[in-house]
Design goal:
Blueprint (H helix, E strand, L loop, with lengths): L2 E4 L1 H18 L2 E5 L7 H9 L4 E4 L2 H10 L4 E4 L8 H7 L2 E4 L2 H14 L3 E6 L14 H6 L7 E7 L12 H18 L5 E5 L4 H5 L9 E4 L1 H5 L1 E2 L4 E2 L8 E14 L25 E7 L11 E3 L5 E5 L4 E4 L12 E6 L1 H9 L4 E4 L1
Parallel strand pairs: 1-18, 2-3, 2-9, 3-4, 4-5, 5-6, 6-7, 7-8, 8-9
Antiparallel strand pairs: 1-12, 10-11, 12-13, 12-17, 13-16, 14-17, 15-16
Helix pairs in contact: 3-4, 4-5
């Protein structure tokens, strides 16, 4: 049976590392929990670290956080839809917004629920996902800052999430300038410049973060210890907070090439035959995990001594060559995971989740 391990000590090491760095820089931060897909066991691990602010893109996950600890500030990190507005206002203390009509609906719902709802206005800085264009930001703010039961607590931005645009000091300075202009024009205080996600952390570590930036939303670097500028694990952090274990359910020596008339498989792929491989064979292992659980391109083999040949909906096939480690049916094969691989595994109902 395949299962996923979360290593508590490694997660705590990563959390403590980031906490120290953010404290040294005078920056507040919240933990993005969307990777955990609402898994109660893993959410408890986050809360037990002392996390007091949790961000997620699924309202049901924020509802679970509030159930586990009502004192945690919850942040909804994608534009809310009209049809989930009541639940969003109920379970999220803060939300990220870039649409005037949406904020008006939030205001109306917050009045109905007799709640104060906090808003971070998202500003477009080049990656072309969500965000108000800078030229319209002053007019945008003018139409929302006096809405009832709404409190604008920050300006924010997202980079690298769609088109791969990287954060820079200049882009973040511009965001800080927008904040200063609004505060001067409207005589209002905007506490936060929420300048980014994990991809912006290297700027802070290299002391290239503008002084006005004072809030982050962090997920990937917490769970994978990664510097997203250099695509490597940061010294002092762990890259293997999560590990996937899969079980061998068949192990046999088989030809390298299939026989018979070839057509497209269920994924629409047609095998390209290398005729030089006819007559050759190797040991093949079938693992108890498949495309229903994860795309194989997001799996990282520990020792590199086998090749992932492909997958069907529920099975993954490896080429073990001569099988130098003498794997047999029932043995476990371990994988590390890329972010999107971990997200898929955590979203899979069929993979057991464990804490070590």
């Amino acid at each position: 049976m395949a299962f996923l391990n979360l290593y508590r000590d490694k997660l705590k090491t990563n959390f403590d590392f980031l906490k120290e760095k953010f404290n040294d820089s005078g920056v507040a931060w919240g933990v993005v929990s969307k990777l955990l897909c609402g898994n109660e066991l893993y959410l408890k691990e986050l809360i037990n670290l002392g996390v007091d602010e949790i961000h997620d893109s699924r309202i049901s996950n924020l509802a679970k956080v509030k159930e586990l600890n009502p004192d945690v500030q919850t942040v909804y990190i994608k534009p809310a839809s009209k049809r989930n507005m009541a639940d969003m206002v109920k379970y999220a203390d803060v939300s990220l917004n870039s649409e005037l009509s949406t904020i008006k609906w939030i205001s109306e719902e917050a009045v109905r629920q007799n709640k104060k709802h906090k808003i971070i206005i998202m500003v477009e800085t080049g990656d072309l996902r969500e965000g108000v264009m800078g030229d319209y930001l002053i007019d945008f703010y003018a139409q929302i800052f006096e809405l009832p039961n709404i409190e604008v607590i920050g300006l924010g931005t997202n980079l690298n999430c769609l088109n791969g645009v990287m954060p820079s000091t200049d882009k973040l300075i511009q965001l800080c300038l927008y904040k200063q202009i609004i505060e001067l024009k409207f005589n209002k205080d905007i506490p936060w410049v929420s300048a980014g996600t994990s991809v912006t952390i290297p700027l802070m570590l290299r002391h290239q973060l503008p002084q006005g930036v004072n809030h982050f939303r962090v997920g990937e670097t917490l769970y994978f210890g990664v510097d997203l500028f250099e695509e490597k694990v940061i010294d002092g952090m762990y890259g293997d907070v999560f590990e996937l274990y899969t079980e061998i359910i068949e192990m046999q020596e088989k030809p390298l090439l299939p026989t018979g008339v070839l057509a497209a498989n269920p994924q629409g792929d047609v095998l390209d035959i290398d005729e030089s491989l006819y007559g050759k064979s190797s040991f093949r292992a079938i693992l108890d995990i498949g495309l229903l659980d994860v795309d194989p391109k997001y799996l990282l083999a520990e020792d590199g001594e086998f090749e992932i040949l492909g997958a069907s909906s529920d099975m993954l096939i490896l080429d073990l060559g001569e099988n130098p480690k003498n794997y047999k049916v029932g043995d476990l094969i371990k994988f590390n995971l890329k972010y999107m691989g971990a997200l898929a595994i955590l979203n899979s109902y069929y993979i057991e989740k464990r804490v070590k």
